[in-house]
Write a structure and sequence with these properties.
Strand content: 5-15%
Order of helices and strands: EHEHHEHEHEEHEE
Structural class: alpha/beta
Keywords: Oxidoreductase
Helix content: 25-40%
EC number: 1.-.-.-, 1.6.99.-
InterPro entries: Flavodoxin_fold, Flavoprotein-like_sf, NAD(P)H_dehydrogenase_qn
Largest sheet: 6 strands, parallel
CATH architecture: 3-Layer(aba) Sandwich
Organism: Atlantibacter subterraneus
CATH superfamily: Flavodoxin domain
CATH topology: Rossmann fold
GO molecular function: oxidoreductase activity
Distance between the termini: 48 Å
Length: about 270
């Protein structure tokens, strides 16, 4: 299996850096091919702007979507963008590893998505009609690939409980997992979250390493989150609101998970 790790932490000798190496070592020992995009080490440019494309706009203002589309189609992207897109094509599984900063990923990783996810590559693909709203949310160019988040957080696990002060971790990660990974077609594996990272002694570090190694061993077998697919009947088109008989009376991110049907009563 080809595994790409997209990694964002500014300090190579941090806990995050050690955990990244644990993953690389374990995956390599299992016989997988591994590439790492270390965004800080690469001095990755975070902002999407006109400098990302060499096309002559003939005095027209920069249009992020249009310039992205033409840049991708015509080979006018900067080489760093093209290299990351090639890594995504190569990968069977992509792991995004980052510390939870202000309830999201570091800006440098958000910039990776904004620049690498070109129009025609990660979005704006497929048929757009009254019955098919583009190839997205379970379809798209990343279909058949797996993705997973490895996240470190300073707070206690209880702080990220559904009733915790920070809000539930699943709520916090939903825009990333559903909107940035499921949207272009990745099968999204349950996240691996490590809490209270500033209170990590050697004994606990060893335990966390063993847990992370276990996740690496099961990457190919782990069942993905059962997100609903957009164009397969669960959503009303063109409103894209979930059909009223599904998750009736509920709202929030959990309604976008397929539910197991209750077994019919015997008798």
């Amino acid at each position: 299996m080809n595994v790409l790790i997209v990694y964002a932490h500014p300090e190579p000798h941090s806990l995050s850096g050690a955990l990244k190496q644990v993953m690389v070592t374990q995956l390599t020992a299992l016989g997988h091919q591994v590439q790492v995009s270390d965004l800080y080490a690469m001095n990755w440019k975070a902002s999407l702007d006109a400098a990302d494309f060499t096309r002559d706009r003939q005095g027209k203002p920069f249009d992020p979507a249009e310039d992205s589309k033409l840049g991708y189609e015509q080979g006018l992207q900067t080489p760093d963008i093209t290299r990351e897109q090639e890594k995504l094509r190569w990968a069977d599984t992509v792991i995004f590893q980052f510390p939870l900063w202000w309830f999201s990923m570091p800006a440098i990783m958000k910039g990776w998505f904004e620049r690498v996810y070109a129009y025609g590559f990660a979005y704006g693909v497929g048929e757009h009609s009254d019955s098919h709203w583009g190839d997205r949310y379970g379809e798209g160019n990343m279909t058949g690939k797996r993705a997973m988040l490895v996240v470190t957080a300073g707070g206690w696990e209880s702080h990220y409980h559904p009733r915790g002060i920070n809000g539930g971790i699943d709520d916090i990660l939903f825009p990333i997992q559903h909107g940035m990974l499921w949207y272009p077609g990745f099968d999204v594996l349950p996240p691996h979250v490590i809490y209270r990272v500033h209170k990590m002694d050697d004994a606990r570090f060893q335990v966390e390493c063993e847990k992370l190694e276990a996740r690496m061993k099961t990457l190919e077998q782990t069942a993905p989150l059962p997100f609903r697919r957009q164009n397969f009947g669960d959503y009303q088109i063109p409103s894209l609101i979930l059909r009223p008989e599904l998750a009736e009376g509920e709202s929030g991110w959990r309604v976008h998970l397929q539910r197991q049907r209750k077994a019919a009563r015997a008798g």
